Amino acid sequence: MTARSTDTKQEIIRIGKSLIRMYGYNAFSYADISKELNIKNAAVHYHFRGKEDLLAGILDNYMEEYQQLGKHLQASSLTALQKLEKFIERYSTLAECNCICIIGSVASDYNTLPESVKEKTTQLIGLAVSMIEKILLEGKRKGELHFEESARTRTLLLLTNLAAGVQLARISGKKDYDAIRKAAISQLK
Amino acid sequence: MTARSTDTKQEIIRIGKSLIRMYGYNAFSYADISKELNIKNAAVHYHFRGKEDLLAGILDNYMEEYQQLGKHLQASSLTALQKLEKFIERYSTLAECNCICIIGSVASDYNTLPESVKEKTTQLIGLAVSMIEKILLEGKRKGELHFEESARTRTLLLLTNLAAGVQLARISGKKDYDAIRKAAISQLK
DNA sequence: GTCTATATTCCGATAGAC
DNA sequence: GTCTATCGGAATATAGAC
Fold first, then answer.
1. Which residue in A159, A171, A147, A124 sits closest to A17, CA to CA?
2. How many CB pairs under 8 A join A and B?
3. pLDDT per residue over B76-98, tens digit each?
4. Domain B58-188 classification at class level
5. Does strand C come within 7 Å of the CB of B45?
6. How far is B138 from chain A (nearest CA, A)?
7. Is the model's pTM score more than 0.85?
């Protein structure tokens, strides 16, 4: 495989990841990607046979990203609260650029996604949930974080606050997102 | 205006409301609506000049619905907790049928919505937020509900739990939604 | 192996029939 | 006033050029 090919394929994934968070799976086209790369839209079909395959590639890439983030946080010397804040930072970045998270994006479009990728969305969410769950459990064990519910339920509460928080931020403003973020963290202290 | 016309227009709105919660604004077509009504897709253009106008009609309809619900709850003799549960019931119904709420739907597609309707989405969310806010304030005043944050922040926390909760329910299952719903209510008691 | 020219399908929309 | 036949364009996808 030549360097050019690898680059193009990676570039397509990179742009696709951005588009799916900005507009959603159904609202971006191969043309959006090919324009940015100055190639013809059909060239994208060489790297990804169909949009369905591109989506699978995007989701695989996100899963690698989450796994690396998980390992990175695990290996770090950060406190549980700091680890949590590192994760939450990602959402604040999304709110800044009017993007929503990949989880909210695929969940909102779920009923229109090709069957072949639905299982991947389940896996992706599983990764995110278990990553946060571990951090919460560690925080509780060390006395840094406090909550009554199960770690999984707490994770779901936090994740839904963040996922819908960045969605709302587009419409009612970043101030609301910030209020949500601060309150969600402060609930755990 | 004949009875037929009124019926058709109302039917289009009814079906459109269902489609936007099921698939999102970009993923449903006039054909989806016309098929269900056994008319040609172009007939929908008579009642709503363009998809943009249909969306405006759908959002107006939701605003009326929220306003009526607000008045209804206000006039009722229910406790604040019962009023809150009435509102939350709507989300449980959505989770049952793999639908997401109108707020999450337009928020997820926001960057692709026609400019002419963006203001309506702000108004719609404003209605929902202020409805819940009033209930929370009443509950706190009467000692039925308890929370530290401002009523608005608490409203945002609850609304994001519910909105993303029904989104997640599509993928990770209704059990997770139920855990979220129960925990969200129990936080307020 | 990589990309382009082209086909096919579907969508939203207009013009005109009844 | 209500709806249908049809258009123009965009999106995905295939076949084939380099």
1. A124
2. 151
3. 999 999 999 999 999 999 999 99
4. mainly alpha
5. yes
6. 21
7. yes
